[in-house]
Design brief:
The structure holds two protein chains of two kinds. Chain A contains one helix and ten strands. Chain A has one helix at 5-33; strands at residues 44-48, 59-69, 72-84, 90-94, 105-107, 112-114, 121-123, 129-131, 140-146, 149-153. In chain A, the strands form two sheets. Chain A has a six-stranded antiparallel beta sheet with strand order 1-10-9-4-3-2, with no helix packed on it. By secondary structure, chain A is of the alpha+beta class. Chain B is mainly α. Chain B folds into two domains: 31-379, Up-down Bundle (Cytochrome Bc1 Complex, Chain C); 387-475, Orthogonal Bundle (Cytochrome Bc1 Complex, Chain D, domain 2), CATH 1.10.760. In chain B, 65% of the residues lie in helices and 2% in strands. Chain B contains 21 helices and four strands. In chain B, helix 3 packs across helix 13. The interface between A and B is medium-sized, with 20 and 33 residues.
Chain lengths: 167, 481
């Protein structure tokens, strides 16, 4: 298709304008979103001796994890529920509800975890959803014994998705 | 008409009826600029482009900046050194500030020399002068924010200047700083003004400015308007010294001009690209300077404002003591008043510069004065931090270093190592104190019989002799040659 001078100049101007916008936009957007895409590290946290947990009664343990927070390194408080089964197996749940991230609380009568925000209910022994909106079971964390200490590898996960997405 | 085209037509009409986009596009883009409009007319757009760039980079900086004395410096260091593209973005913002001042000034100079402020464009000029003041306001409020040495000291001096005003001075200082201390309250205040108040006001006034430019159309270059060069029957026919036919004549120029889209926008865009490439080049090669964190007790720091305020800084040196507020407040206000009054004082029809000798001479004097003051300030500014022979020099020593290089280094060597004409100063620096060296420089003959060195008191004066003496003390470690 033949272009007259004015059409050509118009297209050239539009192209150059788009190129300039991109040259400005890419570094700006890169700077704006770059650090946000950085994946958190998964620190190992000591939870104490397995014997300090009563079999069948979950106990919450909270601790500080170091996070890169913009120009600061801050210590953010995180919590896990530690559940020692009668068979001496230790299960560690991330204490955040898988629905939208509120902290779940243990209900001794029902042996469930209840989320105070939207009423999600999880079985204490398995973490499975018993009621309410949570899309997946409570997030289980990797735990190992190390010289008489329980050591958990702490992670946060994306809330609200059926699949577990580490942050 | 096909069904699709009919539907687009209907959708187009529906949108047009509600948003009038077609009208907006027609008014803004599908207009002609008059005959003779060329590259000088792109400066306004270039300045506006700089503002857009400042706004965009500023938003990104604000995402990572913390306006508190405890965190400002750390957050700027983080975004400069560790954020991906952060140094580049801050570099663009830093150099963009200077570019905006330069382009606004050049735009003003061009508009002045083309006499484009004359009827009917007086209001456009007034708003433009306000935009210049806002641009300088951005500079002044912006460079406190990194909270480094320059930030702290230049703003400390700048706000104290407000404090010298008679009667209102103290209140003004307190209001500007949010108290007496240049600290947390001052920093949030400067930040809020820099990122909230000034942008809002500038956007509003810029919109008015551009609307007025579109409404009146850009001026015809004076040489054409004056009628020397146009061989066009229609325009010739409308040639008349009376103002009544100006509008009609302007339209004739406009009919013969070029369309704004795409011809003029293309030129504007090319200038914007050039500006961006220059700024990107500076951002990549020079980066954004960040000195050591502000230290209110650092006597080694020599405060200087950004270059575009240096003329004002230099001016103060000529207004000693009681009259300082004249230089600080009265002269700038007079200058501002003169700019604002210009279109109402200079109301002659004549727009060609060579027939405006008073205006031309005035402009040359003002530009020459600002140029002179800026140059004098630059030449008279020692570097703000000097480390020499492993010693971090104090402010007096840095000043002394400048005089030393001018008066002493020829005979004693650049590091006091001595030359065939003059002895090494290392021993004097080790064995003598500042008092002795001071007295010796003032009048060597009084301190040592038969000394060959000339007396320097008359040339230097007590203050400068003392600075040289302080500087000579730093030469104790120099090896004699």
């Amino acid at each position: 298709m033949a272009l007259d001078r004015r059409q050509f100049l118009g297209r050239l101007t539009a192209t150059l304008g788009a190129a300039l916008s991109a040259a400005i936009g890419v570094p700006l957007i890169g700077a704006a979103v770059g650090p946000a895409l950085h994946r958190d590290s998964a620190p190992e946290v000591a939870l104490g001796s397995p014997d300090s947990f009563v079999p069948g009664v979950p106990r919450m343990v909270s601790f500080g994890v170091t996070k890169e927070d913009g120009y600061l390194r801050t210590t953010a408080t995180r919590a896990v529920w530690v559940y020692r089964t009668a068979a001496d197996e230790v299960i560690v749940y991330n204490a955040r509800c898988t629905h939208l991230g509120c902290l779940v609380d243990y209900q001794p009568g029902a042996k469930t975890f209840l989320c105070p925000c939207h009423g999600g209910v999880f079985a204490a022994a398995t973490g499975q959803v018993e009621d309410g909106p949570p899309p997946r079971p409570l997030d289980r964390l990797e735990v190992r014994g190390d010289g008489g200490q329980l050591v958990v590898r702490y992670r946060d996960f994306l809330a609200g998705t059926p699949d577990q997405v580490p942050l | 008409m096909s069904r699709e085209a009919e539907q687009t037509g209907r959708a187009g009409r529906w949108i047009e009826e509600r948003l009038a986009l077609g009208t907006v596009i027609r008014v803004i883009f599908l207009r002609n600029v008059p005959l003779g409009v060329g590259v000088l007319y792109t400066l306004g757009f270039a300045a506006a482009f700089c503002f857009i760039l400042q706004a965009a980079t500023g938003v990104v900086l604000a995402l990572f900046y913390a306006p508190t004395p405890d965190h400002a410096y750390a957050s700027v260091a983080y975004l400069t050194n560790r954020l991906p593209f952060g140094g580049f973005v801050r570099g663009l913002h830093h150099w963009g500030a200077s570019a905006m001042v330069v382009l606004v000034m050049l735009h003003l100079v061009v508009v002045f020399s083309l006499a484009a402020y004359k009827r009917p464009r007086e209001a456009t000029w007034l708003v433009g002068v306000a935009l210049l003041v806002l641009t300088l306001g951005f500079g002044f409020t912006g460079y406190l924010l990194p909270w480094d040495g320059k930030a702290y000291w230049a703003t400390s001096v700048g706000t104290n200047m407000a404090g010298t005003m008679p009667l209102l001075g103290e209140s003004l200082l307190r209001v500007v700083r949010g108290g007496t201390e240049l600290g947390a309250a001052a920093l949030t205040r400067f930040y809020a003004v820099h990122v909230l108040v000034l942008p809002a006001v500038l956007v509003g006034l810029l919109a008015v400015h551009i609307a007025l430019v579109i409404y009146h159309g850009v001026s015809v270059p004076p040489t054409l308007w004056g009628g020397d060069l146009v061989a066009d029957p229609e325009i010739e026919q409308l040639r008349s010294p009376t103002l009544d036919r100006d509008a009609e004549r302007y339209l004739a120029f406009k009919r013969r001009g070029r369309p704004f889209w795409p011809d003029v926008i293309f030129e504007d865009l090319v200038i914007a690209i050039v500006v961006f490439l220059v700024l990107a080049g500076l951002a990549v090669t020079q980066g954004a300077p960040l000195e050591a964190q502000a230290d209110p007790a650092d006597t080694a720091y020599i405060p200087r404002p950004e270059w575009y305020f240096l003329f004002l800084f230099q001016l103060l040196r000529y207004f000693p003591g009681q009259l300082e507020w004249v230089g600080i407040i009265i002269l700038p206000l007079l200058a501002l008043g003169a700019l604002l009054a210009l279109p109402f004082i200079d109301r002659r029809i004549e727009r060609r510069l060579r027939y405006r000798p008073v205006a031309a001479a005035g402009a040359v004097i003002v530009a020459g004065g600002i140029g002179f003051l800026t140059t004098a300030a630059v030449l008279g500014t020692p570097p703000s931090q000097v480390e020499e022979r492993g010693i971090q020099l104090a402010a007096a020593q840095i000043l002394g270093r400048t005089h030393y290089r001018q008066y002493c280094a020829d005979c004693h060597g650049a590091n006091g190592e001595g030359t065939p004409t003059g002895p090494s100063l290392a021993e004097a620096a080790r064995r003598r104190d500042a008092n002795f060296i001071h007295s010796y420089i003032e009048n060597p003959g009084r301190m040592r019989r038969g000394a060959l060195m000339p007396a320097f008191l008359d040339q230097l004066g007590h203050q400068q002799v003392e600075e040289v003496a302080q500087y000579v003390l730093t030469m104790a470690g120099t090896e004699a040659r």
